């Protein structure tokens, strides 16, 4: 839908085929058949409006405040005959997919369990000390060799000279001894790496910090890594010698530059092959989560590689377990098993234009099939949500994961925005099962108990449980933000509140606007909402404060629905109903 200026009616009569249908009323002449159909304007809400009624044209009023029948029985929950307080935005019902029962980041042996493990750890303590010494010596030798290889090298935009690469073999051999110190005395391999000119890009599933150490020794590739890795002691120096491609996943320009660098280095045979972990984070190896597209945008042949860590008593995945604890458990094992399998090269389709997403899907299917695991829509964004839930000491942190790849695809909502919504949800004091009651919901949004507040809550409570989950809160909020009229509604509400166009809104102005929708609001209730909108706490709500608050709390836009009715009514003036189109 094209953008509208603030002077034009919000509910424009010109509609595209993709626009949601508006409610229709039929205007009857006193002396003739029905006239043109007109768009229905949203009526202002008051505390006394317990039900919204639509006229069916025959004089019968139908109560839209019907009870909900529950889920739709097909794995998701959907609104059925539920009043929609966001109807003025063109909003319709939305569904919330059933919560996933899979936790891709769960380490299944994070605690020492059983007499056998306890005895083994005790017996391996002297061995662990020896391994720790080997680890320290090898890390130091590799660090010194890398410093010598980098000494005086300034032209890092071009491939590393051969003599420096030969010196890096000292570091690569040290990496193999580091793997030995962690208990990987032998590593089973299947298949062979394809020649660099055949497959300039390699992708792999990511299970542990052991993966990049092995690939550094085996392939010495150029890796794509987070910018934060550069500051890690010892490790940062070594990965710089690999001419690593740094990326900040939260900055679009950084991601774009990383893709350009991948393309540049993959196209030149003088550079090492490019290595990526497209999942973007480590998992427990029991599923494949959504792939990032950086490796697939250049459309070069790709060789998938899979790593497995077979185990009985000790899960070697780097999931919900600290690095120190994982290293200690590795040091105190007799042997840790690792398997690496090189899969056939996957070529981009030449006879048809293939998107990066479809190319990535073929690669993820190949890896998942070889591992014999399922695929999910989780991403690094779910790790961020999980960590936030763990930090706040929630009873079931995994219940706050929402399969962020799916959320980003449906609503174009970033992981950082999802974390902000989780902050808001956690302020509502969820119970041990991760659900929020009506009272907690109202406290979080600074709303008073009213019919309108109840309708907002029931709008989110798609399974009619009486409490809402974070996934329902996130999907409902994102659904409102996605409506084509949401941005225009925010701008129009701002214009109506900012009387005189001074560029800021006082507490009195905000209260006058809110009382139209929610009558009899006390000064304390208005003060709480004013403080919510006053993001910088300077005692007045600037235009940026107002818009930012509505983006963080999109459900609150319903408090300003009367502004839309007032704007359209003032523009209509004395025009007759027949003239309103």
Automatic annotation (TrEMBL):
Pathway recorded for this protein: Lipid metabolism; phospholipid metabolism
TM stretches of this protein: 121-146
Top-level taxon of origin: Eukaryota
SMART domains per record: EFh, PlsC
GO MF annotations in UniProt: calcium ion binding; lysophosphatidylethanolamine acyltransferase activity; O-acyltransferase activity
Composition bias, Low complexity: 56-69
Subcellular location: Membrane
Name of the featured protein: EF-hand domain-containing protein
CDD domains: EFh (cd00051), LPLAT_LPCAT1-like (cd07991)
Family, similarity comment: Belongs to the 1-acyl-sn-glycerol-3-phosphate acyltransferase family.
Keyword Lyase: no
One GO CC term on file: membrane
Gene Ontology terms: biological process: phospholipid biosynthetic process; very long-chain fatty acid metabolic process
Membrane found in the keyword field: yes
UniProt entry keywords in alphabetical sequence: Acyltransferase, Calcium, Lipid biosynthesis, Lipid metabolism, Membrane, Phospholipid biosynthesis, Phospholipid metabolism, Transferase, Transmembrane, Transmembrane helix
Amino acid composition bias (Basic residues), ranges on this chain: 38-55
Region of interest (Disordered), residue spans: 1-82
InterPro entries named in the record: EF-hand-dom_pair, EF_Hand_1_Ca_BS, EF_hand_dom, LPCAT1-like, Plipid/glycerol_acylTrfase
Matches recorded under PROSITE patterns: EF_HAND_1 (PS00018), EF_HAND_2 (PS50222)
Residues annotated as domain EF-hand: 521-556
């Amino acid at each position: 839908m094209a953008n509208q200026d603030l002077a034009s009616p919000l509910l424009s009569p010109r509609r595209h085929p993709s626009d949601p249908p508006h409610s229709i009323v039929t205007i009857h002449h006193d002396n003739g058949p029905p006239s043109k159909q007109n768009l229905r304007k949203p009526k202002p809400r008051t505390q006394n409006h317990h039900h919204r009624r639509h006229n069916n044209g025959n004089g019968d009023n139908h109560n839209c405040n019907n009870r909900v029948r529950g889920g739709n029985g097909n794995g998701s929950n959907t609104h059925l005959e539920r009043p929609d307080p966001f109807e003025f935005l063109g909003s319709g019902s939305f569904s919330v997919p059933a919560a996933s029962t899979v936790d891709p980041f769960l380490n299944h042996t994070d605690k020492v369990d059983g007499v056998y493990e306890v005895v083994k750890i005790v017996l391996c303590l002297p061995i662990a000390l020896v391994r720790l010494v080997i680890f320290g010596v090898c890390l130091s030798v590799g660090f010194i060799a890398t410093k010598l290889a980098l000494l005086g090298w300034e032209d890092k935009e071009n491939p590393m000279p051969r003599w420096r690469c030969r010196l890096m073999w000292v570091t690569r051999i040290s990496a193999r001894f580091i793997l030995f110190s962690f208990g990987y005395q032998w590593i089973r391999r299947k298949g062979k790496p394809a020649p660099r000119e055949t497959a300039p890009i390699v992708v792999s599933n990511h299970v542990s910090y052991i993966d990049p150490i092995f690939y550094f020794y085996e392939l010495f590739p150029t890796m794509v890594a987070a910018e934060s890795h550069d500051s890690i002691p010892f490790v940062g120096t070594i990965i710089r010698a690999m001419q690593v491609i740094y990326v900040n996943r939260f900055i679009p320009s950084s991601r774009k530059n990383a893709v350009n660098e991948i393309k540049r280095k993959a196209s030149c045979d003088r550079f090492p092959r490019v290595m990526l972990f497209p999942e973007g984070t480590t998992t427990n190896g029991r599923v494949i989560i959504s792939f990032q597209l950086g490796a697939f945008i250049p459309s070069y042949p790709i060789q998938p590689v899979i790593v497995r860590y077979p185990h009985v008593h000790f899960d070697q995945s780097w999931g919900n377990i600290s690095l120190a604890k994982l290293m200690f458990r590795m040091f105190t094992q007799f042997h840790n098993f690792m398997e690496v399998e090189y899969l056939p090269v996957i070529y981009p389709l030449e006879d048809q234009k293939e998107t990066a997403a479809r190319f990535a899907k073929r690669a993820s299917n190949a890896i998942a099939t070889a591992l014999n695991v399922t695929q999910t829509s989780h991403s690094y964004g779910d790790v961020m949500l999980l960590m936030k839930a763990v930090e706040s000491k929630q009873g079931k942190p995994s219940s706050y994961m929402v399969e962020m790849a799916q959320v980003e695809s449906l609503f174009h909502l970033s992981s950082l925005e999802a974390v902000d919504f989780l902050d808001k949800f956690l302020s509502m004091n969820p119970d041990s099962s991760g659900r929020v009651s009506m009272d907690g919901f109202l406290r979080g949004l600074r709303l008073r108990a009213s019919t309108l507040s109840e309708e907002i809550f029931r709008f989110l409570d798609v399974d009619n449980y009486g409490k809402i989950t974070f996934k329902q809160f996130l999907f409902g909020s994102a659904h409102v933000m996605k409506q084509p009229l949401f941005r225009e509604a925010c701008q129009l509400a701002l214009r109506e509140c900012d009387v005189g166009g001074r560029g800021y809104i006082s507490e009195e102005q905000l209260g006058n606007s809110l009382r139209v929708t929610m009558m009899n609001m006390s000064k304390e209730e208005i003060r709480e909402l004013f403080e919510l909108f006053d993001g910088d706490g300077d005692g007045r709500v600037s235009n940026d404060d107002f818009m930012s608050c509505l983006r963080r709390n999109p459900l609150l836009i319903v408090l300003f629905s009367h502004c839309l009715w007032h704007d359209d009514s003032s523009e209509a003036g004395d025009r007759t109903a027949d003239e309103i189109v």
